[in-house]
Amino acid sequence: MAHLDPLTPAPTQNALDAIAKIAGSDVAALVSSEWAAKTKWDSAASGAAPSGATTVKEGLLAIANAYCGTAGVEYSQVDSEAEAAWFRDQIESVKALSTPLSVEDKRHINHLLVASETFDQYLGKKFGTLKRYGMEGCEASMVAIDAIIRHAAAVGTTTDTVIGMAHRGRLNVLLYLFNFNKNWLFYKLRGQALLPNLDYGALDDVLSHLSASTDLSVGAKKMHVSLIHNPSHLEAVNPVALGKAYAKQQRKSPDHSKPNSTMCMMVHGDAALIGQGVNAETAIIGGVGGYNVGGVVHVVTNNQLGFTAFPKESRPTRYATDLAKMTGTPVIHVNADDPEAVLRASKLAVAYREKFHKDIYVDVIGWRKWGHNELDEPAFTQPTMYSRIRNRPTTPGAYSASLIKGGVMTEAQLSALKSTFEAELDKAFTAAQTLPPPKADELHLAGAHWGPEKLVHPPAALRNGTLLSRPVTAGESVNSLLQIGRASVHVPAGAVTVHERLQRTFIEARLSKLNDLTGAAKEIDWATAEALAFGTCLLEGNPVRISGQDSARGTFSQRHARLVDQSDESKTYIPLANLSKTQAPFECISSPLSEFAVLGFEYGYSAENPKALTIWEAQFGDFGTSR
Ligand SMILES: Cc1ncc(C[n+]2csc(CCOP(=O)(O)OP(=O)(O)O)c2C)c(N)n1
Ligand SMILES: [Mg+2]
How are strands ordered across the β-sheet holding 586-590? Predict the structure, then answer.
C-alpha cells in the first residue's frame, strides 16, 4: 500500500485511508472508534505492538504509517529470520522509514536537487544538441548516492567507496557529488580532448564515460570515492567495480576480515539491471568466497523506461529489481518524488550492509523528463505517459516549494541558491574557453599506489613500444627454483591427508622430477613450471591471484594448488600460500561458472593492484591443443 510510483496517484491520503484500503472501511471506522482509543493493544493476540503504541488505535495507525508511506521494503525473499526481524524492527520500532528529517538534512537535499536541476537546465540552454542523459525526473538518485556514501562514512569504518555507474545523471553526480572540475567539464563539452598532452595521437572518450577519484570530507571523517570509467556496454562495469573494491579491501586486510573498510556501490538503469546477464553473474560471484566484498549497495535510477521500452517490454517481472530474489537480497523501493524518503531508505540500506555484510538495493522509482537523450521525442512511443510528465512539477521544484511552505527556506533564499549555481557554471563556461590542455597529474589517471606504471611516460616510449617492452631484470638461481618447487608440494604433518594417488602421481612425481633436474632429463612439466613462476613472484613480494572454473584443482587435474583432506572437505591446504611468512598473498579460486563477470572482476582487481600477477583462466573450447 506504499505509494511507490510518482506517475500514478497516491493510493491513500492518510493512515486511516490506508487502513480502509487494506482491510475495508469497517476497520477505518474501528480505528476512529472510541473503543480503539481506549482499548489496550493485546500483544498475546496480535503480536508485539509497534514501539510506543499502547492502544489499538495507536498500534493500527503506527502500522499504517510504517507501511503506507512512500517507501516499502521487500524482504520476504531474505533467507534468514534474524534479518527479517531486523527489518521489522527498523520499520516499526526504529521508524527508519518514517522518522522526520532535521532541517539540516532538508537543506542538504534541497541543495543537491536544485544543483542538479540547474545544471541540466543550463546545459539545455548552452548546448542545445548535447546528449547529456540528464537526471531530470530522477534527481532523487543524487540524494541516494550521496546519503549512502555519507552515512557509511559517518556511522562506520568505511573509508573507501568504489562505484560502477551507467550514463544516466553521470555528469550531475560527477560535478555535485564528486568534485569533478567544472572547468574541465566545459572544456570537454566544447569538444576538446580531456587527455594529457602526451602527443600519442589518442582519441578522447565520450562524456558519459568520465570518471572521478576524490576525497570527500564527512564531518571529521574522510571518504575516498572512485567512480570508475564507464564503458558504453551497459552494466559491464559492475564486476570491474567489485574486483577493484575487493583489491582495496585486501590491501587493508589481506584475509578480508574487514569488509566494511571499502564499500562497493553499483548504480543501475532499470531496464539494463534486469536485461543484462552480467548482473546475474555479478550477483552470483559476489556471493561466494574469493569475490565477496561484504555486500554491494545497489541504487536503481528507475525512470520506468529503457530508451523507448516500457517496463512490460523490458521484463516479465513486477519490479526492475526482481533479480534480487535470486540471491535472497532485500530491496527498498522508494518514490523519487519524496527525496526525504529516499534519504531514509539509503541510510537503512547502509545499516543493513554494515550489519549483515550482504547486498541490498535502493530502487529509486522516478520518471524521465525528456526522451532517452534530450534530443529524442518521447511522445513517438510514450504519448500518454509524456502528456502526464509534461504537466507535472519537477521533483526539485516541488521539494523547494514544500520547504518554503514549511518555513525551512524563503523564496529569496531559493533564488539566491539557483543564482549561485548558475554563476559557478557561467564562470567555468568562460574559463574553459582559454584553458590549456590538462597535465596528466591533473586528471587523476592513477592512484598513488601506482608506481612508474602510471601513464605519464614520455610519448616516444608509448609510440615506439619501449614502454611495454622495457627490459626487466629476471633470472632465478636453480637452487632457489628447486626450493620453491619442493615447497609447492610440501604438506606439513597433520595439515591435511592427501589423496593417496595424488601423493604418488603429483607430489612424489614432482619431487622426483625436481631431483632429476640436473640429471639427464632436464625437464619439468607445465604445472611445475607454473608453480615455480608463481612462487618466485610471491617471494619477491608480488601477489598472485588466479581465478576461473576449477582453477584450484586445474581443469586437467594438473595444478592441485589446494589440497583437500580426504576425511573432511572443509579442511584444505595451499602450499603456495605457505612458502614464507613474508611472501605476498596467493589466491587460487575456483570460480562460479561465469566468464563475463569473472573476467571483469579480475580486470578491476588488476587495475587496483598493479604489482599483482592477476590471471583469469578460461575453460572452454580449446580441446584441440590441450589433448
Ligand atoms: C549492452 C548494451 N546494450 C544496449 C545499449 C544501448 N543503450 C544505451 S542506454 C539504453 C537504455 C537503458 O535503459 P535503462 O537501463 O533503463 O537506463 P536509462 O537510460 O533509462 O537511465 C540502451 C538500450 C548499450 N549501451 N549497451
Ligand atoms: Mg531507465
Answer: 586-590, 544-548, 613-617
